[in-house]
Amino acid sequence: MLSALSQVGMIIHKRLINILAIALSIIPQLAYAQTQSYPTDEEIQELMPDFQREVEYWNQYEEPERQSEARAFAENWSRRDPAIVLFLGSWSGWEETTDIYPSKTEGQVCIIHTSEPEASFSLGQVFNQRIYTDRGEVIFQQGNYVGVAWSNDNEAGIEAGITAYRLIAPTEVLTSESLSYWDGGDRIIEQFNAAGCIAEALAAMVR
């Protein structure tokens, strides 16, 4: 009888440990999300027709070989952090790009956005197959595209928008030369390194 009770106690103990582990893994991501105001699911659904129209336009510029190369490149990261693999790569929009890199922190990605004449850096957490950035954006992936949705609450009311980016290539190794064209390039490299972002290590894995 005591042996049976002991076994039951051990099972309950293990289950409590598993529940606690799951909770602890979710809490940091929830805390991260609570520091920003993100587009709601309803807002994103309302924006999807705009996203689909952009996708239809960009479909005429598909580059299957480069996209396959980018997918293979990202897959090298699947064993280390499978949640982020869908998003890794260089994504192109209207005269702008969004490059998404892995980081040393599991579930976190590093994002470099370029648009004439500036470049900017942000971090994102992957949760439920979406990226929640520290700029209040939600990024989702659909085939060879990602959608970047945002929502601002200002005096004029709630303003929301979405942009489609198509996968064009693997991310490049980050250097001072590669960002020298953009305003603030040196600052971005400092932020990139300080946040534990990874570019060189990922590139080395596919050589």
Descriptive report:
With 207 residues, the chain is α+β, with helices and mostly antiparallel strands. The protein has 2 domains: 1-35; 37-204, no CATH class. It is 38% helix and 29% strand. It is built from 5 helices and 8 strands. Strands 1-2-3-4-5-6-7-8 form an 8-stranded antiparallel beta barrel, surrounded by 4 helices. Strand 6 and strand 7 form a beta hairpin. The longest helix is centred in the first third of the chain and has 33 residues, at 2-34. The protein starts with a helix and ends with a helix. Residues 4-33 and 201-207 have low confidence and may be disordered.
Write the layout of secondary structure elements.
Layout: H1 2-34, H2 41-58, H3 64-75, E1 89-92, E2 96-102, E3 108-115, E4 118-127, E5 130-133, E6 138-142, E7 145-154, E8 157-169, H4 185-194, H5 200-204
Antiparallel strand pairs: 1-2, 1-8, 2-3, 3-4, 4-5, 5-6, 6-7, 7-8
Give a count of the beta strands, DSSP E runs of length 2 or more.
Answer: 8
**Which outline best applies?**
globular
Q: Major beta sheet, specifics?
A: 8 strands, antiparallel, barrel
SSE run = HHHEEEEEEEEHH
Number of helices: 5
In the residues, how many domains can be counted? 2
Calculate Rg over CA atoms: 20 Å
Q: Any low-confidence stretches, pLDDT <50, length ≥5?
A: 4-33, 201-207
User: Residue-averaged pLDDT, rounded?
Assistant: 79
Strand order of the largest sheet: 1-2-3-4-5-6-7-8
Distance between the termini: 61 Å
**Helix share, percent:** 25-40%
Give the class from helix and strand content and strand pairing. alpha+beta
User: What amount of the residues lies in strands?
Assistant: 25-35%
